[in-house]
Amino acid sequence: MTVSARAIAVLRFHGTLCERDCLAAVQQLPDVNAYYVSAEADAFPKQTQAIIVPGGFSYGDYIRPGAMARTAPITRALKRQAEAGTPIIGICNGFQILCEVGLLPGVLLKNRDGRFICRDVRLGVVSRRSPFLRKTESTPLRIPVAHKYGQYFVHPETYASLQANDQIALQYVNERGAADDASNPNGSIGNIAGVTNGAGNVLGLMPHPERRSMPWDRGQDGKRFWESLLV
Questions:
Q1: Residue 159 lies in a domain
Q2: Which DSSP category does 85 fall into?
Q3: How many domains does the chain have?
Q4: Mapping DSSP to helix (H, G, I), strand (E, B) and coil, where does residue 18 land?
Q5: Looking at the domain assignment, is residue 216 inside a domain?
Q6: pLDDT (tens digit per residue) in 85-120
Q7: pTM of the predicted protein model
Q8: Are 148 and 93 in contact (CB under 8 A)?
Q9: Structural domain for 29, as ranges
Q10: Catalytic positions, please?
Q11: CATH number reported for the structural domain that contains residue 172 in this entry
């Protein structure tokens, strides 16, 4: 699937707090028309070619992260866009939302040490099926995480299916690119940092590429996610 994404929608739920960073990150791309779409909307603009579900604390993380966002009107339209093949990326709370609405397998549990984590991690790119990963290199990417519920979990049979279907997109790795326990910040099964749906057009990840996309950031590895859309 070759995508020339110019019209990019950024979702806004009550409690979302990374939407401005995401909008600014993609607005750096040439000829991009990026715009917000409210969770109360029942459809995306017809011209939408890619969708970002940003991080934050949608609806205050009541019940559990992403649970209340599942009931918002826009999620029905999000499912329709996913089925139509639209590239979708969910970041941190956006990843949790994509799991809650059933667009991605698994759940995000509390970090294994029970604490909020906010630091840089290294990411190994396992699969480039996602349109957001086509311009990422095989060497580890340096991207920050900021979450308390980021431990990705699936049952063993689902984990085996993810491996078999090339749905594991990103892993937490060390400086040599190896996935080990020391490089796993939250206890995720298989050091998983990001997964895709079966078709590959929906990507969820806990790290925040938008926070390594601007000229003043400490590195710009995150910019590759957005540039990948133009391949």
A1: yes
A2: T
A3: 1
A4: coil
A5: yes
A6: 999 999 999 999 999 999 999 999 999 999 999 999
A7: 0.95
A8: no
A9: 7-230
A10: 92, 208, 210
A11: 3.40.50.880
